[in-house]
Amino acid sequence: MMAVKPGPQDDTKNDGRRGLSPPIYEGQQKKWVKRYRTEVAASMSSILSTFVAFPLDSVKTRMQTYKYDSFTDCVRHTYKTERYRGFFRGVTAPMASVTLVRTISFSMYQRSKYTYAKWIKQNFGVDPLVHVNTPGTYPNLYTISCFGAAGATAGSFITLVACPFELTKLSAQVSVLMAERKVSSISEPSTGRAVAASYQNKGTWKTAKNIVKHRGFAGLYSGFNLHLLRDTLGTAIYFMTYESSKQLLTSYRGDKSPTNPFAVVVAGGLCGVASWALIYPIDSAKSIYQRNCLTHCRGEKVKKAPKIQFFNKRMYRGLGVSMGRSCVVNSIFFSAFEFIKKQINSIED
Q: Whole-model pTM?
């Protein structure tokens, strides 16, 4: 007897999932995206903003750790010796780390914000989140405290994840300079030219392995104390400034939507500038100390980190570049972040 080819209906009967699976899967996917909208929006926005502004970050790090006459002198020297590749050297690490760190940071911040808001409401009878989302209101002590505490909590937590990634990024950015020493260093290490040369032209993973080889696993956390201090203070200032500026601009302009595009762009730029302006000497001390660590092997004594001096001009080398970069990055980031979140919220269940 001749075999009968099964039709579409028979095929569906044989595999009941064919007719049911796509709608169910799509529904679950939508629920997942809506549930984790903060994390999804943060990761997508981070990739875009990090790549666009990375050349400015590279120039900032070089100016912090080596002496240049000016911003243009650093750009000219980098292009002359390393071409365009020099500006994007080490971009893989922050593309991965910043995305991961920002996603975790925003997730931690979101949860911490609700926790602190609940505590403030229970103890003082004021809900900061209700206040900030009420049209026509302005920042007060409760909202600023809530956002600052939540930011500090997120910042201190993400240091555990960010420190190794940032060290590998710094290594990639200044490895050529460490090995060649054509530009005078801010604080010359006593030894380590060969060690420094071993970091040249390596990817993120190989750089991390090289750090472990020379300094052990703990070497990945060189400068951790300074990093922790920088991220705890910086992230607190960052979120305080963003949330408060956005609320202030929205109320001043009479907008009902808390995610007005103009307010988001300006607040995003301001939070980046404000946080870097206040923590920059800490970041400079961290970068110099980490650079020195990379020129020493395990067991060798590394010169102590320079003293954090807020009124020392030397500690602000590259500040203009950093503030400009941060303004651009965060304006792009928050614009994309709020837009993506809005699009996700509009998805029908």
A: 0.77
